[in-house]
Amino acid sequence: MSYPHRRKGELTGLWVAERRIDGARRRVLAPTKAEGDKWEAYVDRHGCAPLDGTGATVKHSLGAVAKAARAQREGWKGSHDTSLDQRLEGVLHFFGPLNPVETITKERLYAFVELLEGRKGRFSAKLSGKTINRYLAVVSALLDFARECGWTTHTVNMPWQEEGEGRIEFLQRDDEEAIAKLLSADERQVLRLLTLTGMRAGEFFTLDAAQVETSGNQCAWIRLRGENTKSGKGRSIPLHDFDLARWLKASIVAGTLPTHEGFYRAFKAACAELGYSDKLNVHSLRHTTATRLAVKVKPAQVQDFMGHGSYKTTQKYIHLTDEDRMAAAACLTG
Length: 334
Prior knowledge:
Layout: E1 3-7, E2 10-21, E3 24-30, H1 33-46, H2 62-72, H3 82-95, H4 106-117, H5 129-148, H6 173-181, H7 185-197, H8 201-204, E4 212-213, E5 220-224, E6 235-239, H9 242-254, H10 260-274, H11 284-294, H12 299-306, H13 311-315, H14 322-333
Antiparallel strand pairs: 1-2, 2-3, 4-5, 5-6
């Protein structure tokens, strides 16, 4: 329980909260007893200080800067990107939410990279240089935000990592057919749905039955809610295969839809058996959708279908082949 703070024997009106974090006793001042008790309860539950900087002795702690940046920074404000929140949490846990931004030094950044290199990502895969750079980009953005707000003049060069060769991000139709033959019947349905809808895995594997509408005359619809999308904006995805839409709805109701992890492992195993690049993953199917759309419809339609905030993002998902370029050249001579 927090207790009244005294200075030279006199009550100051503040309350002292104390807990041991990582072997060291941490003491913070709170404006009320309720706030002090709340801070202690958080530490008891999570084993670390609140990530919003509550209890910091510096005015602009890393936690406070991160909280403000998440709410105000362009590109972060209003975003429902769970991967951004995960990276922010990782940064704050390492550098400490109660510490000043000046805690971020080159030496500490090297230690952070070393920590990330030893960490396993989703499904036990080692973090790539590209993923580590995403964490470093969060650190860089926090420092930029703090400087723009006039809270610090601190700068530090980021130890950006080599990202290696470009990833093979999409499937040709014969590649897709070969993979499908090595999957179970339900997994084949998931493969087809992901390539037809371009949905993110996080959007698809968290669908509920009410989001799949099969009562239309021309096509079925998948209605994505804003809280389930990376952009924070809902979107509607048409699906002309009614049988596939009904299968999806029934599988969700019955609880038989393959899980994200199960489908991921089956997809990767199929790619490995066929000798395909180990860079292919479930997200590659979203690239596949964008690439196939790009040769059929207008750029604005591709962007809208994929749910991207800008066409600049959409372009990263489009991978044209020599056949596509030949078709484009043929239009000029027609």
